[in-house]
Structure formats: C-alpha cells, structure tokens
From TrEMBL:
InterPro entries referenced in this protein's UniProt entry, alphabetically: Phage_holin_4_2
Name of the protein: Phage holin family protein
Transmembrane segments: 33-54, 66-88, 100-122
Source organism of the structure: Rhodococcus spongiicola
Domain of life, per lineage: Bacteria
Length: 126
C-alpha cells in the first residue's frame, strides 16, 4: 500500500512540475485523459524505481560532496535522477522530456517540495 501511495504522490509531483516548469514536458497520448493519467503513472513508476535503486548508490559515492556542501548537493542528485528518468522514459512512446540541467533542478525542487508536503499529510504505519 505504501508503494501505491508513493507512486501516486510522485505522479502528482511530476505532473505539477511539468505544469509549472516550461522545459519539462510529458508526452500526451491523444486518446483522452485516462490514457494521459496512465502515462504519468508510468513515468512515476520509473521515477520511483530510479529513486529506490539508483539514488542510494549515487548518494553513497557522493557522500564527501554531501558533507562538504551540508546536503545541498542533494539538489544536484535529485536533478540527475529526474534527468535519468527522462532518458529512460524517452526510450518508449510515453515519456518525460527535460530540456536541460537547470530545468531539471527546478523540477526536482518542485517534486521534492510536493513529496514533503503530501508525505506529511499521509498517515504513517507506525
């Protein structure tokens, strides 16, 4: 259940970032709103998998930079995870496109803020 909630939160955050940042685009299917929601959920699934498997390894290798910058390098890592999600999803017909690194930074900031706010509203198991 937690994975489904995390997936929906990520999907909403990615959709919101695509609405607010001009360089982030989500591919539209042209088949209606239901198909577009499935596309956003598919992108969120890729984003969630990247954050679950790749991000911890990148954080481990960049630990000296994280310590040196007092955690601000996390913004760069989040932007790189968004760019990686864009690259993986662009290999299919449905996809996320991010114009550049600074666009990814702004998108990552929005996604992080939305995740923090919505995760605080969702009750925890404990």
């Amino acid at each position: 259940m937690t994975l489904v909630i995390r997936l929906v939160i990520n999907a909403f955050a990615i959709w919101l970032a695509a609405q607010w940042v001009s360089g982030i685009e989500i591919a539209r299917s042209g088949e209606g709103t239901g198909a577009d929601v499935l596309i956003v959920l598919g992108i969120a699934l890729v984003f969630t998998a990247v954050n679950a498997f790749v991000k911890p390894i990148v954080k481990l290798f960049s630990l000296p930079l994280l310590i040196l910058t007092l955690g601000l390098f996390t913004l760069v890592i989040n932007a790189l995870m968004l760019l990686l999600t864009s690259w993986i999803s662009s290999q299919t017909d449905w996809g996320l496109s991010v114009d550049g690194f600074w666009t990814a930074v702004w998108g990552a900031i929005i996604i992080s803020l939305v995740n923090v706010v919505l995760s605080a509203l969702v009750p925890d198991k404990r």
